[in-house]
Amino acid sequence: MTLTFNPKIYSELLSKHQPRIIKSEEENEKFIAIVEELLSRPNLTPEEDAVLELLVRLIEDFEDKHYEINASTPHSRLLHLMEARSLEKADLVKILGSRDVTAEVVNGELEISKEQAEALGEFFQVNPSLFLSN
Asked: Which Gene3D superfamilies does this UniProt record tie to the protein (predicted)?
């Protein structure tokens, strides 16, 4: 079954969430909450996926302008995403390979490998480069 994009449903979602250029931390937090709610769903409709993509772009634009990119590290980004989703080390064992490796990565004792970054990117639905050092 092929899912088709319904402009009417998309318009309703746009009306409900009213995405726009983010100008304050409060607006950013509001849109982050919507993104997290959408990401928690197992199957998004094409319209929800389009709204999610739009909101993520707006959040990225705001954060690129307002946060110093070098202020965070791959490790701090991982911890932030874990906290945002209320995840524990045990939740990442299947992604990172073993309990020992997971503990070392989460504790900042081991640098995240390219393969682990790819797996984490897929799991968190973010760009894998967030988990790699420059």
From this structure: lambda repressor-like DNA-binding domains
Per-residue pLDDT at 7: 94
11-18: average pLDDT: 96
Q: What is the C-alpha separation between 35 and 60, in angstroms, rounded?
A: 12
Residue 97, H or E segment: none
- Say what the pTM is: 0.52
The answer to whether the beta carbons of residues 95 and 123 sit under 8 Å apart is yes
63 SS3 class: helix
Q: Are 52 and 31 in contact (CB under 8 A)?
A: no
Q: What DSSP line would sit under 6-62, residue for residue?
A: -HHHHHHHHHHH------SHHHHHHHHHHHHHHHTSSS--HHHHHHHHHHHHHHHHH
